[in-house]
């Protein structure tokens, strides 16, 4: 392998080691108490190297969390099965909350930062949730085709409702009000879908459920 | 008037002057850039006096915002009219957003802090939203009595849905995604209420609307 290639690989390995160390340290002591020297020591590099890659602690937090959370969303969206929509949304909720619940300390910080980050992270987190919204809109359109939802169902508004319930679950959980928000979110989604089901005008033609 | 009474009144006036000055300064330059000396100067007191009452800038932020926001919620809840529920919820949304929209800079900070504050403010903000939730549950129970909602409507879940949509509107607005979230929230509430309307099983007995 040539020298430049090896250097590129080493660079990438260093980056990964720093991000892994950062996630461990943030989860262990919380964002406020975490310091760059401990993270550098954990990653086996100098504090200067960490600063060279990430500038400061907040930048490091975003880099460590964003990629990780992004991978979680992608994996969850790729594993929703074929329906009904209610089950697909429940799977999505459970998968993303699994990520949060495995990292309780980190997630509180993540949540605060993802909802109220400064640029460029504000745009990145906004794009992340926008792509989730687009995907739910598509899932809802397929649910209309399957006859699960009414033809005139506003799919974009349904997606916004799911994001609303999801944020509510996140916030309630981070505040300590609900230890298991997944079931709360499922109930809110079910109640919301009630009004979007096809109207069965003629009881004689009602489908078996 | 006796000396001690006059001192108590002066104290209260000083507190109010400091809180007013803090709100103005936070809105003018943002929470991060605001400094205690400018606030003290604006209130006509020493920085030591401000620190004596409020300890630090974050404490001052919470004291300045919480009372103000609390008064806004109380006034809004006291002025919802007699129904229908959909209109009452729309009035509540508009009144509280009126407060935010009149103070755009302050509100972004307020939002971040009210959703993710540390104690004792976390409990105070949680109690504030809990009392709103209780009030919406009551309004929904009256809507059931009026025949607007089904008998088996879960009023607590409906209240949680309203809070979800309200937070979603707040967050979207603070992120700059929706300049006018009130109408978005109204649409989400309307869609949610669709499934909670009484089932009109017998067209011949359908009420006039």
UniProtKB/TrEMBL annotation, chains A, B:
Residue stretches making up the HTH tetR-type domain: 12-72
Keywords: DNA-binding
DNA-binding region residue numbers: 35-54
InterPro entries in the cross-refs: Homeodomain-like_sf, HTH-type_TetR-like_transc_reg, HTH_TetR, Tet_transcr_reg_TetR-rel_C_sf
Entry-linked Gene3D superfamilies: Homeodomain-like, Tetracycline Repressor, domain 2
PANTHER family, alphabetized: HTH-TYPE TRANSCRIPTIONAL REGULATOR PKSA (PTHR30055:SF226), HTH-TYPE TRANSCRIPTIONAL REGULATOR RUTR (PTHR30055)
Protein name: TetR/AcrR family transcriptional regulator
Organism, scientific name: Pyxidicoccus fallax
Phylogenetic classification of the source organism: Bacteria, Pseudomonadati, Myxococcota, Myxococcia, Myxococcales
